[in-house]
Automatic annotation (TrEMBL):
SUPFAM superfamilies: MTH1187/YkoF-like. The lineage of its organism: Bacteria, Bacillati, Actinomycetota, Actinomycetes, Micrococcales. It comes from the Bacteria. Pfam families: Thiamine_BP. GO terms for cellular component: cytosol. This is Thiamine-binding protein.
Length: 100
């Protein structure tokens, strides 16, 4: 499965930024060992159900430890028996566009 998620505290820090809080979640994802990518809006992570949602739980617990309110948005592509989809889905689009 591939899960795209966005997590952020309910309010920014004193400087108006969410970066430090979001960075902690990204650190957890990166240390998970699961295939992942982060862009300006979401972090995508690929793995089995329990692996991926275990990482989301860790991210949520880390953020709620410092912030009384957290926003979590999750979108999942559940396709049992398929792996490597994080890159292959994009590769197929590039091929159609003549770029792959």
């Amino acid at each position: 499965m591939i899960v795209a998620f966005s997590i952020a505290p309910g309010s920014p820090d004193e400087s108006g930024s969410y970066a430090a809080a979001v960075a902690e979640a990204v650190r957890i994802v990166r240390s998970s060992g699961l295939p992942h990518e982060t862009n300006a809006m979401f972090t995508n992570i690929e793995g089995e159900w329990d692996e991926v949602f275990g990482v989301l739980k860790q991210c949520t617990e880390a953020m709620t430890a410092h912030h009384p309110r957290v926003s979590l948005v999750v979108k999942a592509d559940i396709r049992p028996g398929h792996t490597g989809m994080l890159t292959s889905k994009v590769r197929r689009i590039d091929e159609v566009l003549g770029e792959g």
